[in-house]
Amino acid sequence: MPELNLILLGPPGSGKGTQGERLQEDFRLPYYATGDILRAAVKEGTDVGKQAKEYMDRGDLVPDDVIIGVIAERLQQEEAADGFILDGFPRTVPQAEALDAKMDELRREITAAILIDVPEEEVVRRLGGRRTCEENPSHIYHVEFDPPKQEGVCDIDGAKLIVRDDDTPDVISKRLATYREKTEPLIDYYEERGILNGVNGAKTPAEVEERIHGILATLRREEEEGM
Ligand SMILES: [Zn+2]
Predict the structure, then answer these.
(1) Among 91, 102, 125, 182, the one annotated catalytic
(2) 143 Cα–ligand 1 center, Å
(3) Is 171 buried (19+), middle (13-18) or exposed (0-12) by CB count in 10 A?
(4) In tens digits, what is the pLDDT along the chain, a chain of 227 residues?
(5) For this structure, is 164 an active site residue?
(6) 137 upstream amide cis, omega within 30 of 0
(7) Which of 28, 51, 100, 171 is the most exposed place for a label (fewest CB within 10 A)?
(8) How far is the CA of 29 from the centre of ligand 1 (A)?
């Protein structure tokens, strides 16, 4: 079976994580959210995991070559033989170049970069309206899309609902500015390589999922036909 080696791109609040998890089930591909596999490698104490731990213990950013080492470890496991979904890396053009070099070494290549595109005002609306339970951060509401029965109060345990630091207007604009500056150039990078596929992320999660399915079905067909 041809490989589907995928990268998910999109601004904060684009629903990448949700789509990644759905794709994982639908296409039986492992989903590698970079933060998660980094923490897993540290926990398992693999060679690169130990390297990563040294940086994390010092509170330093884990350098790109170490992260790529962690990713490469995963890609060489049986579960990733038919492909994988990568989310959270690369975030910059130099990271994308380093990833391509590693893929070359492994004699593989990125099949597609899927951009879940959401306009900034929609990101602000989605993230800015989020309210989180003070007692249990997995109880999440949205003032517009998923309001609690009583304003400001968690339906499940009656605790107060708060705006997380990440969801304040200042932090949202900073995250968006970082995305524009560092990550948006990646869109051109993958476009130039002819593997960028854009999806309108302002639609519902089910519609976005269906659209991505269409893209992947086409890709698999093309690969099978040896195009
Ligand atoms: Zn709660």
Answers:
(1) 91
(2) 15
(3) middle
(4) 578 999 999 998 899 989 999 999 888 899 999 888 999 999 999 999 999 999 989 988 889 999 999 999 999 999 999 999 999 999 999 999 999 999 999 999 999 999 999 999 999 999 999 999 999 999 999 999 999 999 999 999 999 999 998 899 999 999 999 999 988 999 999 999 999 999 999 999 999 999 999 998 888 888 778 75
(5) yes
(6) no
(7) 28
(8) 33
The two three-digit tokens of residue 200, written as one number: 């309108």
156: phi then psi, degrees, rounded to nearest 5? -80, -45
Residue 219 and residue 212: Cα distance in Å, rounded?
11
- The answer to whether 66 touches 53, Cβ cutoff 8 Å, is no
Give, as one character, the DSSP assignment of residue 118: -
Q: Which of the following is catalytic: 22, 130, 131, 211?
A: 130
What is the model's pTM?
A: 0.86
List Cβ neighbours of 133 (8 Å cut-off, separation of 6 or more): 139, 140, 141, 154, 156, 157, 159, 160, 161, 162
d(Cα 143, Cα 112) in Å, to the nearest integer? 35
Which residues hold their Cβ within 5 A of ligand 1, which is an ion?
133, 136, 139, 154, 156-157, 159
Residue 140 β-bridge partners: 132
**Cα–ligand 1 centroid distance for 135 (angstroms):** 6
CA distance 36 to 18: 15
Cβ-proximal residues to 60 (8 Å cutoff; 6+ apart), any chain? none
